[in-house]
Design goal:
about 425 residues, alpha+beta, UDP-n-acetylglucosamine1-carboxyvinyl-transferase, Chain, 2 domains, five-stranded mixed β-sheet, four-stranded mixed β-sheet
C-alpha cells in the first residue's frame, strides 16, 4: 500500500512509543530457554502496540510444528537458529521471505557447528532455509567473525550456558557492541554472569531464572521524533515509555541530535524534546558501527538540513532488511540529494538540486527506510511512500501517530486515543 504524506509546519503531541523490539525478542528467547513456557510470550505479542517482529518471535517459540517461517524478521531468524539447535529430539525447517533467503547466516551456522549443532542448508549454501535437528550442544571455545552482525553473537551467547559454557572468540572488528552488551545485561538479570575478557566473551555453564516479561519503550522508534524536532523546530513533542537509563544502544540518538539543536528534558518519566539555538555543523562526522539502525534516520535528517556529513562504519547495512546503503543513495537522489558510498562510509556534500512534482519513494520492504523517508515530507510537499505498511515490523502505529500529530496521511485509519494532544 502507498501512503501520501503531507507535513504540517509544526506538531504538538504526546507519543506512546512501542516496546523495544531488541529487548523484547531477547526476553522472549531467554524466557523460552529458562522454562520453555510461552504464555507470557504470547501475551506480550498480543499487546496492541507490539511490533510485528515481537509477534513473529513469540509465535515461533510457541509453534509445535516442523515448519517455522519468520518472514522478514532477521533477529528472529538468527536467534531461533541457535534456539532450535538446543531443542533435543525436535527437527525444524526454519525459513523466511524472499529477502531473508538473501541474507547470510553461514557464519552463525559455522559457529553452531563448532558446538556440534546439526544444521543443514535446504537451498543456497550459507542462506536460509535451514533444517535444524536439536540435541545437546557441546561448549568450549567457539570462533566467530564479529564484524558482520551482533545478532550472531547474541544468539550464541544466550544458548551458551545450556551447552556447558562457552568462550566466544570474536575475530575482526566487532560491530553493534551495545546490542551485545544488552544481551549480556539481560542474561545477568536472569542469573548468568558472562563477561568480556579482551577480545573474547566468557560464558559459564548454568541455567536462567524466570522473570516476568516487562516492556520498555523503543529508543530506535524515538529517533524519528528526535529527527522531527530537528526538522520542525517549533514542534512540541513528548515521548512516553522510555527508560532514561536504558541499556538500548540507540539511546545514542540523544547525543547525535544535540549538534542539530535538539536536547532532552525529563519530567515524571516523560521525555520532552526541546530546541536550543546552535550553528549547524559545517561537517557532521560520526562512526555508526555501534548504532547501524540509526543511520537511515540520521542520513535523511542531515540531507534535509543540508548539513554535509561523513558517516563511517556502515558496511553491515548492506545485509539489513534491504541494502540500506544502496536504498538511501537511490531514494534520496530522487529528492535531489546525492549521497556517495564506498561500502563502508556514507558521504553527502550539503548540496541540493530542486525537485518539483510528486515523488514516490520506495521503502524497499524495509521498516526503517519507510519511516526515515517519511521525514522528507517536512521539506518536500508531495511525497508518497511505497509499501508503507512495512513499518509494522517495529512501529505498527507510526502512520497513525503521524496522522494524529497533524500530518495528512491518505488511505489510513486511526484512533485519536492512540496519541494524546497536549
Amino acid at each position: 500500500m502507498n501512503y501520501s504524506v503531507t507535513s504540517p509546519a509544526k506538531v504538538d503531541c504526546r507519543v506512546q512509543l512501542p516496546p523495544s523490539k531488541s529487548m523484547a525478542i531477547r526476553a522472549l528467547l531467554l524466557g523460552a530457554l529458562c522454562d520453555g513456557k510461552t504464555e507470557d510470550s504470547l501475551h506480550l505479542a498480543e499487546q496492541p502496540n507490539a511490533s510485528g517482529d515481537i509477534e513473529v518471535m513469540a509465535r515461533a517459540l510457541a509453534c509445535t510444528g516442523e515448519q517455522v517461517n519468520v518472514g522478514g524478521a532477521g533477529a528472529a531468524m538468527r536467534f531461533l537458529t541457535a534456539y532450535f539447535a538446543t531443542r533435543r529430539g525436535r527437527t525444524v525447517v526454519l525459513d523466511g521471505d524472499e529477502r531473508m533467503r538473501q541474507r547470510p547466516i553461514g557464519r552463525l551456522v559455522d559457529a553452531l557447528r563448532q558446538m556440534d549443532a546439526e544444521v543443514q542448508y535446504l537451498g543456497n549454501e550459507g542462506f536460509p532455509p535451514l533444517r535444524i535437528t536439536g540435541h545437546h550442544l557441546t561448549g568450549g571455545t567457539v570462533h566467530i567473525d564479529g564484524s558482520v552482525s551482533s545478532q550472531y553473537i547474541s544468539a550464541l551467547l544466550m544458548i551458551a550456558p545450556l551447552a556447558g559454557g562457552v568462550t566466544l572468540m570474536l575475530d575482526g572488528n566487532v560491530v553493534s557492541r551495545p546490542y551485545i552488551d544488552m544481551t549480556l545485561a539481560m542474561m545477568r538479570k536472569r542469573g548468568v554472569e558472562a563477561h568480556w575478557h579482551e577480545g573474547e566473551i566468557v560464558v559459564p555453564s548454568g541455567s536462567y531464572k524466570s522473570l516476568p516479561m516487562s516492556q520498555e519503550g523503543d529508543w530506535s522508534a524515538a529517533s524519528y521524533w528526535f529527527a522531527m524536532k530537528a526538522l520542525l523546530p517549533d514542534s512540541a513533542i513528548a515521548l512516553l515509555g522510555l527508560n532514561r537509563d536504558s541499556i538500548q544502544g540507540d539511546r545514542a540518538i540523544v547525543e547525535m541530535m544535540r549538534p542539530l539543536g535538539v536536547i532532552e528534558s525529563w519530567n515524571d518519566g516523560v521525555l520532552s524534546l526541546e530546541r536550543t539555538d546552535v550553528e549547524l555543523p559545517q561537517l557532521y562526522s560520526r562512526g555508526m558501527s555501534d548504532t547501524p539502525d540509526l543511520v537511515p534516520t540520521l542520513a535523511v535528517t542531515l540531507c534535509l538540513l543540508h548539513v554535509p556529513y561523513e558517516l563511517t562504519g556502515v558496511a553491515n547495512l548492506a545485509i539489513k532488511e534491504s541494502n540500506r546503503l544502496e536504498a538511501l543513495q537511490e531514494q534520496m537522489l530522487l529528492l535531489g540529494y546525492e549521497i556517495e558510498s564506498d561500502g563502508a562510509t556514507l558521504r553527502y556534500d550539503g548540496n541540493h538540486t530542486a525537485v518539483t512534482g510528486e515523488v514516490t519513494l520506495d521503502s524497499h520492504g524495509d521498516h526503517r527506510m519507510a519511516m526515515a523517508l517519511s521525514l522528507a515530507s517536512t521539506r518536500h510537499a508531495s511525497i508518497t511512500i511505497a509499501d508503507a505498511q512495512v513499518v509494522a515490523k517495529s512501529y505498527p502505529k507510526w502512520w497513525e501517530h503521524l496522522a494524529c500529530a497533524g500530518f495528512e496521511i491518505s488511505e489510513i485509519r486511526y484512533q485519536m486515543s492512540d496519541l494524546r494532544f497536549k
